[in-house]
Amino acid sequence: MPFGAIGVILSFYLHDIFWKPMPLSFFSTMGMVALTGVVVNSSLVLLVFVQRAREKGLEIKAAIMLAGRRRFRAVLLTAATTVMGLLPTAYGWGGLDHFVSPMALALSSGLTFATVVTLFTIPATLAVGHDVRWFIKRLFGIKNKEEGVIID
Fold first, then answer.
1. Helix 100-140 with 26-55: angle, nearest 10 deg
2. Rounded distance, CA 24 to CA 42, Å?
């Protein structure tokens, strides 16, 4: 959600400077709410793939790289088709609607920004989180389930 909100605010700001003023209205906020579901879905596609690869026995870094290779196209194409479908409504190609245009602009710009950021931050966060978890376990002498029983 924060990535989408940053993309929406940045887009409306740049839209006001270079194109024509577009108000950040109730409908654009509704677009931001709708954006949360799509952005979360992109993250879940990557996370579920990593989890399934880990269940099959892959190391975390190999699972993250495999998820990036296999799911990159699916996440990117889903976002691209949604953005391309919203552009005519956002910019009024074929007729401008002052109520729906801000919502379409919020959805398309937020989705573009959030997808790009998600494709980089989710794998990086997983890798860093795994390393931090490993460090904490090592620091306190906690063994993994595969290694045996946890001893105090």
1. 40
2. 25
| Tokens, residue 44 | 């879940």
The candidate with the shortest Cα–Cα distance to 107, out of 36, 19, 13, 15, is: 36
Decide which of 2 and 146 is more confident: 2
Average pLDDT of the chain to the nearest whole number? 84
- Number of neighbouring beta carbons within 10 Å of residue 42: 22
State both tokens at 84: 């391309």
The distance in angstroms from the start CA to the end CA of the chain is 40
Distance CA 66, CA 69 (A): 5
- Domains present along the chain, CATH in parentheses: 2-140 (1.20.1640.10)
Tell me: pLDDT of 98 over 70.
Answer: yes
